[in-house]
Amino acid sequence: MRTRRSFTLALLGLAATSLAGAGCGNKSNDIQVGAFLSLSGSDATFGTDTRDGIELAVEQLNAEGGIKGKKVKVLYEDDKSTTQEASQKVRQLIDRDKVVAILGEVASSRTIAGGLIANTSKVPLVTPSSTAVEVTQGREYVFRVCFTDEQQGKVAARFVRNDLKKAKAGVFYAAQDTYSSGLAKSFRDEFKKLGGEVVVDKGYQKGESNFRTYLSELKGAGPDVIFVPNYYNEMVLIARQAKEAGIAGSMFVGGDGWDSSNLVEGAGKELEGAYFTNHYAPDVPWPNSKKFLESFRTKYKHDPSSLAAQGYDAAAVLFDAMKRAPEVTPEEIRKALAATKDFPGATGTLSMDANRNANKPIVVVQIKDKKFTYASQVMAE
Ligand code: PHE
Questions:
Q1: How far is the CA of 255 from the centre of ligand 1 (A)?
Q2: Alpha-carbon span 372 to 370, nearest angstrom
Q3: What is the mean pLDDT of residues 195-213?
Q4: Do residues 174 and 143 share a domain?
């Protein structure tokens, strides 16, 4: 009886010690960085692909000794592809986990939501791939390692007008989405400036799944190309219905939101020959991209998406800033991030400009044989 009791007491003691360890939130003495991503919900591949890229960067960093003798751990939170959860998760990471910096999101609407919290809490946030102009505007603590939609829309318009030599464009976009409508605007403005004509311009509601009426209107206006700056899940449906309506897939031009293996799995055949602007393609001819491609293939046994490459770069740029910062505090990390210059990223060499946007090249990708193939690159201005 007595032995049994002391055994129980010993067990209780053990449990208490480990609980106390867990209670301080960070028993391993790692540096904690937060990440909020769409790991489930409508844009799940955005989140999971980005996480794969971040994890590769973390693994490489820790294998090389971490930061100031400490290992870095990224705490992931799933916002389920909603803006409301995005704000809540950022708040949790800051208040509960006391992270020193945050990575995320992909969709601009969710980075705008989470960025507001990070900015008012004075914790630096680096978004891998949110391109809407508003994301970093007036927010000292919000940075991005990608170009903006102002730049991306211009490049798409120039590509259509000057390289494809098309004069009549249709524009079809998700009306209430910040990313989609912002990119549509920038394309439209530049295309007209270059002497092109927008012969049909339609906004659909996010969440619609029957695009047939729009598609017949688009076709009726007789455009040479149709610019559709939306996300891959809607594009799969549009491409399939366009095929039924007799619109050739090669007429479509898109933006970085098309980047997902689900696009080519769902509508690769329907979109054969289509072009879109992007951050990366596996066959992009930059030395750092090749190094990244090799290590990514070794770890995951498949090619990285552009999102994975952007996730990798966001984490690598943040870690580089943390190494340069005299102390690993949110304020010092913010200053070091702002000073990022000529960083050799997997998605090109980048420098942070005065508005916390990355200066770097934009890639034009073509869908060929259900694969994303590098077509050309343009330096964003
Ligand atoms: N740029 C998109 C946005 O801001 C997100 C995205 C980036 C999607 C890259 C796919 C690939 O909303």
A1: 8
A2: 7
A3: 96
A4: no
Residue written as token pair 């927008």: 198
Pocket of ligand 1 (CB under 6 A): 46, 106-108, 129-132, 179, 256-257, 259, 306-307
CA 264 from centroid of its chain's CA atoms:
18
Which atom of ligand 1 is closest in space to residue 279's alpha carbon? 9
Residue 9 has pLDDT above 70, yes or no: no
Cα–ligand 1 centroid distance for 68 (angstroms): 33
Q: Which of 224, 257, 278 is the last residue of a domain?
A: 278
Give per-residue pLDDT as tens, 163-184.
Answer: 999 999 999 999 999 999 999 9
Strands 343-345 and 348-352: antiparallel
The answer to whether the bond into 190 is cis (omega within 30° of 0) is no
Query: In 3D, which of 145, 110, 350, 125 has the Cα closest to residue 231?
Result: 110
Residue 207: inside a domain: yes
Inform me whether the pLDDT recorded for 56 exceeds 90: yes
Q: What is the mean pLDDT of the chain?
A: 93
* Mean pLDDT value of segment 299-317: 97
Q: Which 8-state DSSP code applies to residue 249?
A: G
Is the residue at 58 inside a domain?
A: yes
Tell me how far the alpha carbon of residue 225 is from its chain's centroid. Answer: 26
From the CA of 48, how far away is ligand 1's center (Å)?
Answer: 14
Edge-first strand order for the sheet with 125-127 is: 72-78, 31-37, 102-103, 125-127, 142-144
Match 């507001």 to its residue by tokens. Answer: 116
CB of 162 closer than 8 Å to CB of 216:
no
Place of tokens 């960085």: 33
- Token pair listed for 56: 């590769």
Given a contact cutoff of 8 angstroms between Cβ atoms, the answer to whether 25 and 99 are in contact is no
CATH number, domain with residue 178: 3.40.50.2300
Classify residue 190: in a domain, yes or no: yes
The answer on pLDDT for 338 being more than 70 is: yes
| CA nearest to 253, candidates 314, 198, 335 | 198
Whole-structure pTM value: 0.90
Q: Tell me whether strands 361-368 and 275-278 are parallel, antiparallel or unpaired.
A: antiparallel
Question: What domain count does the chain have?
Answer: 2
What distance in Å separates the CA atoms of residue 333 and residue 317, rounded to the nearest whole number?
11
